Amino acid sequence: MVxxxxxxxxxxxxxxVSGDVSIDKIAKIMIDENIPCVLVIKKDNxxxxxxxxxxxxxxxxxxxxxEKVKTEDISSPKIIKVHKNxxxxxxxxxxxxxxxxxxxxxxxxxxxxxMITEEDVVNVAPDIINTLESLINHLLEIVDEVLEEEKxxxxxxxxxIN
Length: 162
Hints:
Blueprint: H1 7-10, E1 16-18, H2 23-33, E2 37-41, E3 47-51, H3 52-60, H4 71-74, E4 81-83, H5 88-98, E5 102-106, E6 112-117, H6 118-155
Parallel strand pairs: 1-2, 4-5
Antiparallel strand pairs: 2-3, 5-6
């Protein structure tokens, strides 16, 4: 069985802000924390997110003032979640398929406990490659041992005992 790295190992704590925080403040948080998005708790207690694309498309391009626009005014309900035990390889596929830069990690109860980003996945990729390389080498050793055993068995001559 392939040893996998669960997203739980590489996740970081998500940044959560209230819906009344201004865009200029969350942009600074995103830069300081090196994260592509923040979670937003709206007045109705629903959770959405604001990412770089939201800020560019809904504030910058429209020439709105980031100091005046609130996070809940531009937040998006598109939050893609994965279970904490999801293998990183599978998370990479989910990110690619959904064209997102982050996934939110949930516990057994569905509560968001973390997030992973493209950068987190890229940073762990060498470990995944090393794990796969080790597995392949181990399998090749087993194949060699089996082939050696077969050769030995063919060389054995059985002499009947009376």
